[in-house]
Amino acid sequence: MVNNADRKSGHCLRGIDGHVWGIDHGLTFHVEHKLRTVIWDYIGEPLGDDTVERLRALQARAAKPGRSLLAELLATEELDALAARIDRLLRRAILPEPRTDYPYPWPLV
Question: How many angstroms separate the CA atoms of 50 and 48, rounded?
Fold first, then answer.
């Protein structure tokens, strides 16, 4: 649900415990729509039940009445954009394609 234009698999590190860590440069929750560069191999794949469950939990936390914790970390505009991205993804329930003619970043990792 992040809106980072520079999030590729090469910007993720797997910890020795198996946890995957995303490397951030401070634009992760940008309000302006960014071209997602997240692992193109999964475009059009349906969301799994576990992913939908986690998105619904995040959706509840991003809802206006319950924003207390997230509001401490993000601006109102960033929370609104996050909530809109969650809603859009849950409506389609598949991993999205880019909505732009902008070329894919290369090389794909």
Answer: 5
Give the up-direction half-sphere exposure of residue 4: CA atoms within 13 A in the CB hemisphere.
17
* pTM score, whole prediction: 0.70
**CA atoms of 6 and 99, how far apart (whole Å):** 16
Listing DSSP states for 1-42 in one string gives ----TT--GGGEEE-TTS-EEE---S-TT-SS-----S-GGG
From the number of C-beta atoms within 10 Å of its C-beta (0-12, 13-18, 19+), residue 52 rates as middle
pLDDT tens across 49-63, in order?
Answer: 999 999 999 898 888
